Amino acid sequence: MSEPPLYNPHDKFFKETLGRATTAAAFFRAYLPPELASTLDWDRLERREGSFVDETLRERHADLLFTVPWKEKEVFLYCLFEHQSEPDRWMAFRLLRYMVRIWEEELRSESDRRRLSPILPIVLHQGERTWKVANRFRELVEVPESGNDQVAKYVPDFCYHLVDLGEWPIEKLRGGVLVRAIMTTMRAVREGELVERLEDLDPLLSGALRERDPGFVRVCLEYLMRGGDVDLQVFRDSVEKLRIGEIKEDVMTLADQLIQEGRHEGRQEGRREEGLAILRRLLTHRFGVLPEWVERRLTQASTGEFERWSEQLLDARNLESVFEE
Length: 325
Hints:
Blueprint: H1 9-17, H2 21-31, H3 34-37, E1 46-48, E2 61-70, E3 73-82, H4 91-109, E4 119-125, H5 148-152, E5 161-164, H6 177-191, H7 198-210, H8 214-227, H9 232-239, H10 247-287, H11 292-300, H12 303-313, H13 319-322
Helix pairs in contact: 1-8, 6-7, 6-8, 8-10, 9-10, 10-12
């Protein structure tokens, strides 16, 4: 399936960091069960392009698909990034749907296959709440206790491996410099401690520079600025203390740009709210108390719609004609 546009800073960070095969291999080696990780040929891990997530869920899910050799065969590693606060009790069901899409894609590209490749599903959870929902598909299916064996054997069954950031304190994070920097950055956004975590990130980002990876450092710091609620001026001042050499100027420039964008958006939002208040007063003066459908249209309207409705109000016979297309 084709690669969708990146919808938000979370998707962008996930795909620009763990989307690299070498970094993904280091992440999987660190967080998969050792008895499994030791059987996979990480040097030959390859990323497959495309996304298998439902379009309606792309605001909260991002995914990456890889292939890796295993015992002279090839398996899929499917990593789903869940960055919303609420754990999804139906995650195993959603994963089953995504896995079927992966297999369908495999059969389309290799129509002569006799068997499907195994898929190892991994969920990386960044949300605020600890993940306590079932990670096994069979637990989502209601099977009566009496006669369980007769029915259960017909029910699909698999489990997914969970990496819950809430269960990994900073000091216990695994992996090399880049993987720990990724996980620390994700935790900082998760906890809202964007400035406070710069001290933890400083040696990791310095290590990334020693590995000649300045682009990685930029991605991490940009995610901290765009991915959470942070005072950009305070963040900018804190970045000045980091040991990130020539990257510092780029990051400071981006911070200045975001500060200016925030001021511009604030002015635009202020003008929008002012226009909304004026139009609401004019409509109320002419037609009385506004029904719910009008309030709904007003709160969802663009600046262009405000302008058109204001012009149509001059000759409108009734409320409906104000909002005619």
